[in-house]
Design a protein that fits this description.
Elements (H helix, E strand, L loop, with lengths): L1 H31 L12 H10 E4 L4 H14 L3 E6 L4 E9 L3 H12 L7 E15 L5 E14 L4 E6 L3 H19 L3
Antiparallel strand pairs: 1-5, 2-3, 3-4, 4-5, 5-6
Helix pairs in contact: 3-5
């Protein structure tokens, strides 16, 4: 009888601990949630312009040739393919470049003349994401979107800038080269 009583008591203690833990967990989780502002999911006019700048439609149902042409163009302009998933229509590439700018060097020299130390941008990593997605009925067209970003480090190894590149000329030139590559790929030239 005493053993049955101890087992019942242990079960009650375990149930009490589990119930207490559950109640505390609910309060903690509910306390962490916040209201999402209504404007959080609204796109700004600038983001729409940037998306239009980064995206082109190609009237083809051959996604593989678009990806092949995209990889070839990226490699031709000096990027190294970091990741590629053709089933998802994604290519990620990068390249390292110097970030030294003449203006910063002049300021650093002038600062050194007066005994002050100044760091300048030293190197940058350019990253690109190339994405294809079906467009329209029966996948007769594909949208190609490309985004360029860069991270800049100074002479002390600190990140000084992380930014998306949004120069319209940059994207226009890429898509001109890419369109030619798609043509050559389609005609197996």
């Amino acid at each position: 009888m005493r053993r049955d009583f101890n087992e019942s008591l242990n079960k009650m203690r375990l149930l009490y601990k589990n119930l207490t833990f559950s109640i505390i967990s609910v309060f903690i989780v509910s306390g962490c949630t916040t209201q999402i502002p209504k404007e959080a999911f609204q796109l700004s006019p600038e983001s729409l312009e940037l998306r239009q700048l980064q995206t082109r439609r190609f009237d083809t149902n051959d996604e593989k040739s678009l990806l092949s042409a995209g990889a070839a163009v990226l490699q031709d302009i000096g990027f190294t393919i970091d990741e590629s998933e053709t089933k998802l229509g994604v290519i990620v590439a990068s390249k390292d470049r110097s970030a030294v700018e003449a203006g910063q060097v002049i300021v650093a020299i002038i600062a050194a003349f007066f005994g002050a130390q100044s760091s300048i941008d030293k190197e940058q990593k350019m990253r690109v994401s190339f994405i294809t997605s079906p467009y329209g009925a029966n996948n007769k067209s594909y949208l190609v979107r490309i985004t360029f970003q860069r991270i800049v480090w100074n002479t002390q190894g600190q990140v000084t800038r992380r930014e998306s590149l949004d120069d319209p000329i940059f994207y226009q030139e890429f898509f001109q080269i890419f369109s030619k590559a798609v043509f050559l790929e389609a005609h197996e030239i």
